[in-house]
Design brief:
This is ATP-binding cassette subfamily B protein. The protein is an alpha/beta fold. It contains nine helices and ten strands. The strands form two sheets. The chain has a six-stranded mixed β-sheet with strand order 6-7-8-3-9-10, with helices on both faces. Strand 7, helix 7 and strand 8 form a beta-alpha-beta unit. The structure holds adenosine-5'-diphosphate (ADP) (2 copies).
Length: 229
C-alpha cells in the first residue's frame, strides 16, 4: 500500500510560466525515489503537488491507483507525512509539536519518536525538558532542530507515504549526520519521495530522477547514472 504515481503531471503557479512540463514516474509501495536537480528545477513543487498544497494543471497524481483529487484532504493528510525544508512549528512545547495530529499518543510514544529523531538529548538538557517552548518566548531552535521535531512528528504519525525535503541550508556536519540518520530511520520500509541533497540518500534510493527545468532529464539507479556520465 502507498504506491505513488505521477502521470504526465504539468503545473504552473503563473499560467504564463510552466514549472512542471509533463512528469511521469512511480514510487512503488515501500520504495524510495530521490529527486535531484538544480535549484529552481521544480523539485519542491513536486512535493507540494503530492500533498495537494496546489492542484496539477494537467495530468494526474495517483495513490494506489486513485486520483488524489478524489481523496478527502483529511485522508490524504493522514496518508502522507511531509517534512518540508523549512519547518514551521507551533509556538508551544516541543512535546505538543511532536504529538500534533496524534493526540492519542502516550508520553512514552512521544519520547520514543524524539529519540529516533535524535532531539531527545537536546530536549533533556533544557530546564523544563519536553515542556520547553519553541516559540518566540521560549527556546530558539535552529533550522536543523526544527526539522528534527518535524521528523519526530512524522515518526509518531507513521504514515505509509513520506515526502522529505532535505535541508540545503549550511548545517554543521554533526547536525547533518543526525538529521540524515533520523530521516533514514523514518523512511525505512515506507514509500518515500525525497528531494535529495545528500549523497547517502541518492546512493540508497531505488530510483533517482534528475529534474531540470520541469522535466525528468535522466533516471536510473546510482550506479547506472554514474556509468552514463
Ligand atoms: P526547486 O525545489 O527545484 O528549487 P521549486 O519547485 O521550489 O524548485 O521552484 C520551481 C520554480 O517555481 C522556480 O522558478 C520558482 O521560482 C518557482 N516557484 C516556486 N514556488 C513558487 C510560488 N509559490 N509562486 C510562484 N513561483 C514559484
Ligand atoms: P528552496 O529553493 O529553498 O526549496 P522554495 O521552494 O521556497 O525554496 O522556493 C524556491 C524558489 O521559488 C526560490 O527562488 C523562491 O524565491 C521562489 N519562490 C518561493 N515562493 C515564491 C512565491 N510565492 N512567488 C514567487 N517565487 C517564489
Amino acid at each position: 500500500n502507498g504506491t505513488v504515481t505521477f502521470e504526465d503531471v504539468r503545473f504552473a503557479y503563473d499560467p504564463n510560466r510552466p514549472i512542471l512540463k509533463g512528469l511521469s514516474f512511480e514510487v512503488p509501495a515501500g520504495k524510495t525515489v530521490a529527486i535531484v536537480g538544480p535549484s529552481g528545477a521544480g523539485k519542491s513543487t513536486i512535493s507540494r503537488l503530492l500533498f495537494r498544497l496546489y492542484d496539477v494543471s494537467g495530468g494526474r497524481i495517483l495513490i494506489d491507483g486513485q486520483d488524489i483529487r478524489q481523496v478527502t484532504q483529511t485522508s490524504l493528510r493522514a496518508a502522507i507525512g511531509m517534512v518540508p525544508q523549512d519547518t514551521v512549528l507551533f509556538n508551544d512545547t516541543i512535546r505538543y509539536n511532536i504529538r500534533y495530529g496524534r493526540w492519542d499518543a502516550s508520553d512514552a510514544e512521544v519520547e520514543e519518536a524524539a529519540r529516533t529523531a535524535q532531539i531527545d538529548a537536546f530536549i533533556k538538557a533544557s530546564p523544563k525538558g519536553y515542556e520547553t517552548e519553541v516559540g518566540e518566548r521560549g527556546l530558539k531552535l535552529s533550522g536543523g532542530e526544527k526539522q528534527r521535531v518535524a521528523i519526530a512528528r512524522t515518526i509518531l504519525k507513521a504514515p505509509p507515504i513520506l515526502v522529505l525535503d532535505e535541508a540545503t541550508s549550511a548545517l554543521d556536519s554533526h547536525t547533518e549526520r543526525e538529521i540524515q540518520d533520523a530521516l533514514e530511520r523514518v523512511s525505512r520500509n515506507r514509500t518515500s519521495l525525497v528531494i535529495a541533497h545528500r549523497l547517502s540518500t541518492i546512493v540508497g534510493a531505488d530510483e533517482i530522477l534528475v529534474v531540470d527545468q520541469g522535466r525528468i532529464v535522466e533516471r536510473g539507479r546510482h550506479g547506472q547514472l554514474l556509468a552514463a556520465n
